[in-house]
Every structure is written in C-alpha cells, then in structure tokens.
Amino acid sequence: MSELGTKEVPVPEAVPKTEKDLAPMNEENLDDYDARPDHPSEEDFQTLRRVHGRIPLKAFTIAFIELCERFSYYGTIVVYSNFINFSLPDGSDGGNPNTGAGGPSAEARSGALGMGQRAAQGITTFNQFWQYFMPLFGAYVADEYWGRYKTISAALAIDILGHFILIISAIPPVITKPDSSLATLIIGILVIGFGTGGFKPNISPLIIEQLPEKHFYVKTLESGERVIVDPQVTINRVYNWFYMFINIGALVGQIGMVYAEKYVGFYLSFTLPTIMLCLCPAVMWWGRRQYDRRPPSGSVLKKAVRTFSLAQKGRWSFNPYRTWKNMHDGTFWEHVKPSYLRNTNTTVPSWMTFDDGFVDELRRGFAACAVFLYYPIYWLTYSQLNSNLTAQAGTMRLNGLPNDIMTNLDPFALIILIPICDFIIYPGLRKMNIHFTPIKRITAGFLTGAAAMVYAAVLQHYIYQGACGNHPVDRIDSGECDFVDINVWIQTPAYVLIALSEIFASITSLEYAYTKAPKSMRSMVQAVALFMTAISSALGEAFVHLSEDPLLIWNYGVFGVMAFAAGAIFWFQFRDLDREEDRLNDLPEGKIQMGSSDEEKVHPTA
C-alpha cells in the first residue's frame, strides 16, 4: 500500500563468518543488531540462497497441543448435523441406529433430536460463526491483561468444561428428552466458543515465539556456501508443520467419531474428543518453565486505535476520490509519528507514550488487516467441502462408501502435500532465487481455489447430463432413478486443489498475521484473520439459494469467478507490499512507555 512508503533501510556490508563465529539474532543482542557485521547487504539479499533457522523441540509440543484441540473440535462438530437433524432411532438410547444383532446397516443413520435439515444447518452455521467470532475477545484478554500462556491455559479449562456438557447432552437419560438434550447442547456450544476464542488466536503466535532467531543474518555452511538465515523461511516451515498437525487431528477425529456415533452412540463421539483435549493441560503444565512467555502489554490496543484515528484527522472529504487521495498520499502514518509532531511544533497527546518505531509497526499491522479483508471470498470456496461437495458425492456411484467420508480427502491431501512443499517445492524455488513471498502465495491460493470450483462446476455439468437429469438429489431420494454412473473418486482433483489452496492461502495467513503484527498485538491481528471465516459464513447465507438443483453449476461457477477476481485485484493492490517484504520483516522494534506503576520505565512492545 502506498502509505507504507519505499524507503530503504541502510545496512552494512556483510562479512563472511561461520555459524560458530556469530550468535543468531535474539532478544538479548537485539540492541546491537544494526551494527552486526553478519547482517545481509543489499547484494546478499539479491544473490544468496535463503535457509531456515533452528526449530526447538518445545515448538513441536505446542503443535501437539493444537493437534489434540483440533481433534476435539472437528471430532465433535462432524456429528452435530446428524445429532440435530435426525430422530433418535427406535430402540436406541445413544443415538446409534439399532438394527438387531447384525448391527447397523450401511444405509442406517444416527440421530437424536429430529429437528430437520434447516435447524441442523442453522445451528451448525451459528456454531461456526461463534467459534470464529470469539477469538476477538480472547485476543484482547491475552494482549491486554493475561498474556498468551495464561489465556491458553484458562481457555483449555473452559473448553474441557464445554465438552463435558456435550457428553451430558448425549447420555441416555438426557438424549431421550429432546428439549433437555437441545438445551444442554446449545450451552455446550456456547461454552466451547469461549474456550476456542481464548485458544485459537494465541496458540499460533505462541509457537513462533519459541524460535530463537528473530532477524536476518549471513552464515557460511560447511560446504563453503554463504546463505541468509531468514526468519520468514523458518516461520513458514513451522506453520507448514503446524497446519499438518491440525489436519492430522482433524482427519483422525472426523473419521473416528463418525464410526463411534454410528456403532456405539453420540456419547462416545463426544467423550473421546474430550479425553484428547484433556492431554493439553498436561503439556502446558510441562511447558510452564520451558516456553518463552511474553507478558501482556497493557493498553496498547487503545493507543493503536487512537493513533489510527489521529492519522485520519483532516483527511475525510465529501468527495470520495479526494478522501482516497488523502488517505494514500504517503503521509498517513508519517504525520502521527512523535518526532514529526515535535518537529512541527504540534502538541503531542499525553497518551502518545511511544516512539516512531511503534508507529512503523502499526502501519505494518494495519496493512496486514487490509490483506485479510479479501479472505472471506477465499473461505467461500473452502466452505464447499462440507456442504455442496458432500451433497454432490451423494449423487454418484459410492461403491459402499458414505458420501460424507469424501471430505476427508482434504486433510489427507494436506498431509501429503505439505511435506512436498516444505522439502521439495519451496527449497527448489529458493535455490533458483525465486522468492515465493506471502503476497504471491496468497494470490496463488485464490487462483487454485478458483480452479477447484471450476472443476466442480464441470463435474456437476456431467452429473446433470446423467439419467437423473438436473434434479438428481430429489429423484434419487424418491427412487425415480439410481445413482449417476460416475465414480465418486472423480471428485479427488477438487479436494486436492482446495488442499493446495490452503497451503498457499490459509497457512500464509497465520504467517502473515504473526510477522506483520505489532509485537504487542499479535493475538489481536491473528483474531482478525480468524474473524474473516465468521464473515464468510455470514456472506455465504446470501448464496444459499444457489445450493440446490438445478443451480449448482452456477453455485460453483460464481464462487470460482469471485475467487479469481479477488485474487487478481488482491495482487494488483498489494504487489507493492510484496516488493517491501524484507524491509517490513526487518523493522526495528518500537518502544512504548507503560502507564501507572511503570510510568518511568520504557519497555519494548514485545
């Protein structure tokens, strides 16, 4: 964006050193960073290969916590639809279909409340919105009051309580009373939302804070090759594996709990995720002396909002074009720096107890939030996994598979593709000196998501050409025709393309939220990124009328065109940020003076 400017940061020439000669950049030697001879020169940035730094074991324990939490989340929500939609089967007191000694047949369905598809869709949509809205609250608590470690620990306790409430909703004395079971289920969903809200925006910044190297430096490998140790490459690698842990938890949780629901009952499909979740506090307890824990930064959010408001002063006009020009004239942030106010004899507000470096961090953080504003369009394509693509599978030849099992192709593909990207594709591009920067990756994510929708639209066209015509769902359910003679595995490319788009867009959003946020607002910026999923859920309601025959080709086509257009506009708007990537990642850390008892002490914003 134009207000970020293009000013280059002068750096000293790099002197070849071995890895043993110089310690990596960290918080202890940060003050001497600019004077260190191992800082890359401009020529180094253009010519040297980039490599990742050291990743400590404790970072993987945080990824394991995320695995357990996502197992509990996805393993639970995967059975919500059946629980709400279908009635309790005759003779069952757990929700599992009871068909005699032979057990449930392949066509038998579990159920509990019998409220119908509309109620199931409404409650599950609310649950998704709630789970991705609450991180705004959890991020605020972490950044302002408790810090990430304490907030995560408290959130896990609340989350576990919510899961125990879900178990109660499914035990025989309760599940046989639909009103009581529904009320208990809703309470459980609300409580889990508070837990998820405190957990999700804080766990991903916490894992990166365990990395010892914070800035670029040059080292010489044993082969004699000089390389740049790039923290961004390290962060990208960590988030790739972090995301793979998420999908391992989701894959095992979803598959396992579907069968637990069908063959035992809903109480088991709620109990097993709770047991997995209970492993998390034990790991957090182990890490209480192992993890690097940043303290909360007080009223930094208020200062950020006030600074942003002050920057807009005098820039608004009744002429929209004039307003846009005023906002993008390159002085938006420069004119609210304390040094500028002093040099122009302008009164510095009493709340402006920070330096110019903090304003630079704010500029970078607000730019990141602008990047995330495009994500609701991307999530519309991703959301087809558990809705329309699942229904599409139900119209084709399944060969004994349940149609909702196909959605697991996405996490399965991710588990395969993430190591391929991490070990082969990304290092290969770096060896060719091709910088596949975050803005490029996000753009690629939009385009691959669009390609998945185009493929689904073409496949839907061929389904409509089958014996069931353009109303296959109704005609198959009524027995007028058999399943369309297309093997369901032909859906695989759509799921693989969506998985690839996640690697480019979703993983990069975690990375971008961390690296571009002010040190004191990382949880909040991460919550803004997560909140885009909630906005996407609300936006998706406007397209519900396309989610039925004979309009499904239009459904996939519209989402494909929207994703492609959003990706193109996204690149056009943010390509300047792409050129400034290294400078933005290497900004010096700003300082801010804390209030009350810390009036005389100046702290880094971390």
UniProtKB/TrEMBL annotation:
Keyword terms of this UniProt record: Membrane, Transmembrane, Transmembrane helix, Transport
InterPro entries: MFS_trans_sf, POT_fam, PTR2_symporter_CS
One term under GO cellular component: plasma membrane
PROSITE patterns per UniProt: PTR2_2
Bilayer disposition of the protein: Multi-pass membrane protein
PANTHER family documented for this protein: OLIGOPEPTIDE TRANSPORTER-RELATED
Protein name: Peptide transporter ptr2-a protein
